[in-house]
Amino acid sequence: MKIEIKDLRFTFPTGLEALKGISLTIEAGEQVAIVGQNGAGKTTLVRHFNGLLQPASGSVMIGDWDVKKYSVAKLATRVGYVFQNPDEQLFSRDVLTEVTFGPKNLGYAKEKIDELVQRALSLTELNDKTETNPYDLSPTWRKMVALASIIAMDTPIVIFDEPTTGQDALNVARIANAISELRMEGKTVITITHDIDFCAENFDRVIALSNGQVLLDGPAREILGQDEVLAQTYVDPPQLTRLGKRLGLKETVRNQEEFLKAIT
Amino acid sequence: MHERLSFHIKRDSVIHRLNPLTKLVLILALILIAFTFPWYWAPHFLLLLAIIPLGILGRVFPEFFKTATRLILPAASFLFLMQAFFQPIGEDVIFKFYFLDITQESLMFAFRNAMRVFVMVSAFTLFLLTTHPSELMSDLTRRGLPPQFAYVIISTLQILPQMQAKAQTIIAAQRSRGLDTESTFLKRAGSVLPLVGPLVFGSLVEVEERAIAIEARGFTSKNVKTSLYEIPDPSFDKFIRWSLLGLVILSIAANLWPS
Question: What is the distance in angstroms between the Cα of A65 and the nearest Cα belonging to chain B?
Answer without folding.
Answer: 16
